Amino acid sequence: MSDLPGVLMLDLQGLALTDDERQLLQRPQVGGVILFSRNIRDVAQVQALVAEIRRCRPQILLAVDQEGGRVQRLREGFTRLPAMLRFGQLWQQDQQAAQALARDCGWLMAAEVLACGLDFSFAPVLDLHTGLSEVIGDRAFAADQQALVALATEFMQGMHEAGMATTGKHFPGHGSVTADSHHALPLDSRPLQQIREQDMQPFVRCLPVMDAVMPAHVIYEHADAACAGFSDYWLQTVLRQELGFNGVIFSDDLVMAAAAAAGEMEDRVKKALAAGCDMLLVCNDRQAALQALAVLETLNTEPNPRLLRMQGKHHLDFAALQATPRWQQTRAQLDTLMPKDAE
To answer: Which of 322, 335, 167, 332 has its CA nearest to residue 252?
Structure first.
């Protein structure tokens, strides 16, 4: 079996592996697991689950969505993280303080995730806060490009300090469409130049600290008839060639409603690979994951060595992490950004 992670990232049913899942993880084309809330009880349980997964596949990539705010899977025993828009609001009062705390928050988030044995969080969101997209909403740092780029760069630098690779999402920008791609197919009808000058700029300007990117399940009709994640134009012409991005490209979940525009699961897998995705996410539908796996095994897809860059580094013991002055001070500062009704 290759030391490289395979191409498919899938999910698990519960708090521990089933026998079927142990067998599934042994299949070479499976290269990643993403944890959801149903897989998480507390720190010790996550660490035990991670150890169990790694006994099956030592090199597998283990991910989670730990953005902050309403998108935070790790909760019990973990720091409650503010929605990223809170940093944008702080920026309006004190730019220097907002940047410093964004960096410390990126470090703390990443350090806690790594202390569980996971490799990375799919973060941060680089979409503009336009007020149009409810699914993005307060997950975005700011409406202003300068503020967004400054805060996101600091957040990603903090992640790097902890030893975690960064993932900018959702390229080239999901903030200017109203439809939620989990449930519908968003269509962006604006002129291509406007998208390039506005929504895409945070990705362009954050390239030096961006290790991976996740494209949006959005059709930008003046660029391509396909969603960005299935688009040779966005992933090859723009991202790889024009911008010179050499990091990892993750598909967004191929089970999402918007992905259906690419066809059946076989079509989605083939189109995402052809467009340039390095790893494909198929979540919350085991039958769909098995279909995707069967397609990948037929294609005999070779994993890309760049996936190894997503492996976590500097795993610190959780108790040792909590004893550090930076963790204690950052946690206290983040509490001041949390709404009063937060848990």
So the answer is: 167
